[in-house]
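dumping this here so i dont lose it
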């Protein structure tokens, strides 16, 4: 079983490892071609026997994904959409507060599925670092998507104050230029 990949993104969704083998990986974090990435991998096997790889730049995203796909009626595509649109912290916060409307904002997630997730996942989702609010998750995802290390992206996000994502991204890039 594949648990970890370290390589270079060749095209969106394909990672080429040092050995020259390409793996198609689905991820809630945008993967930018040419960027070096380190991904925690989760696999699923479909009815037809096909194996699908899901890659996560951090453990909380992977843990939330695994908790979501363990719910009846919640598939991997729904879990990816929720993580992509809300981030792990925003998703956990929405479930804990019963905010099904926030979940329904994710692409492909309807009101009934959002309500089901709020009801079933309340006690199943792991705790996620509270300092990672939705905007911080977006900033971290953007920085990782640009090829920065997850730890450096988190540090830069913590040191980039403000509410406007564009300004925070610019400030974080200035900070990371010295890394």
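and the seq i came up w/
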């Amino acid at each position: 079983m594949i648990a970890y990949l370290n390589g270079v993104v060749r095209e969106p969704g394909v990672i080429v490892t040092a050995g020259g083998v390409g793996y198609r990986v689905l991820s809630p974090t945008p993967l930018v071609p040419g960027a070096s990435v380190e991904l925690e991998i989760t696999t699923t096997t479909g009815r037809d026997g096909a194996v699908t790889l899901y890659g996560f730049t951090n453990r909380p995203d992977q843990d939330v994904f695994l908790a979501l796909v363990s719910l009846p009626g919640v598939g991997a595509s729904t879990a990816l959409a929720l993580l992509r649109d809300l981030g792990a912290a925003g998703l956990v916060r929405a479930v804990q507060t019963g905010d099904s409307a926030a979940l329904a904002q994710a692409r492909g997630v309807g009101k009934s599925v959002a309500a089901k997730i709020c009801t079933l996942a309340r006690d199943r989702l792991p705790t996620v670092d509270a300092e990672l609010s939705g905007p911080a998750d977006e900033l971290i995802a953007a920085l990782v998507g640009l090829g920065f290390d997850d730890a450096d992206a988190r540090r830069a996000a913590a040191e980039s104050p403000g509410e406007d994502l564009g300004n925070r991204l610019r400030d974080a890039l200035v900070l990371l230029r010295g890394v």
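The chain has a mean pLDDT of 84.
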